[in-house]
Amino acid sequence: MAWGYLVIAGLLEIGWAIGLKYTQGFTKLDATISTVACMILSLAFLSMALRTLPVGTAYAIWTSISAVGTAVLGIVLFREPASWGRLACTSLLVAGVVGLRFVSSH
Description:
By secondary structure, the chain is mainly α. The protein is built from four helices and no strands. The N and C termini lie close together (10 Å).
């Protein structure tokens, strides 16, 4: 269950990272409310995951899910560059997450 909480926390962090772009400096009320809700829920789910998962592993995976998801959505939604170098480095993050999952004892 902790791994599921961690994935949800990571997805919610993607939501608030992308949501920040849509708040336009916190001038858009609906986007700001959604973004803050994602922040709170992301931390809540991370906290639940940390009940059983090691903090170093959980934090690394949480931030990596967010980094990869935000980078991909940045490419798709905002037409950010999709260079080979950027995609290769993002792939390394994915490999790290998979590796941490398999070496974790929980």
